[in-house]
Each structure stands twice: as C-alpha cells, then as structure tokens.
C-alpha cells in the first residue's frame, strides 16, 4: 500500500455516483451521506487507477501522480 499515492476527489466535478466507493476493495473510501470521501489514503495501491477509470466525470486525480501510465499490477483492477 502507498502513502505517496492516493486519490483526491474534485467535488466541483463529482456527481456522487459512488463508482469509486463501489470499486475500491481496499477501504480507501467511505460514504458521508451520498458523497464518497477518502478516509484511508494509505490503503490505496501505488499505481492503481481503477477508481479513476470508472469515474464518468474525471473527478479523481492522485497525489504522487507524475503523469505516467504506471501500473501497480495490484490485481484489484485491470489498470
């Protein structure tokens, strides 16, 4: 798991579809009402972009992203 790679949600774009919450099996997100919130950033797997790929409005970016197409091979997604 990574402390230098984790998702950040742009709430001006987020439509609260919860695709990120439903996708992540590492406990990174929790719902506060209908809004997904990053509560366990350390649980994010370095290089995993599974939730970002599912976001229909591109509201998820990553701390630690240097613009590459790195893949973690984490097995939780086909990233």
Automatic annotation (TrEMBL):
Give the keywords, sorted.
Answer: 4Fe-4S, Iron, Iron-sulfur, Metal-binding
Coiled-coil annotated residue ranges, if any: none
Q: Which Pfam families match?
A: Fer4_7
All copies of the 4Fe-4S ferredoxin-type domain together span 5-34, 35-65
PROSITE patterns linked: 4FE4S_FER_2
Among InterPro entries, the record links this protein to: 4Fe4S_Fe-S-bd, Fe-S_Ferredoxin
Report the leader peptide range: none
Superkingdom as given in the UniProt entry: Bacteria
Reply yes or no: does the keyword Iron apply. yes
Name of the protein in its database record? 4Fe-4S dicluster domain-containing protein
């Amino acid at each position: 798991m990574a402390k230098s790679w984790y998702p950040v949600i742009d709430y001006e774009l987020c439509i609260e579809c919860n695709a990120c919450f439903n996708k992540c099996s590492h406990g990174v997100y929790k719902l506060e009402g209908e809004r997904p919130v990053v509560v366990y950033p350390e649980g994010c797997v370095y290089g995993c972009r599974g939730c970002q790929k599912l976001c229909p409005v591109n509201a998820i970016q990553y701390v630690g992203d240097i613009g590459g197409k790195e893949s973690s091979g984490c097995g939780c997604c086909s990233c």
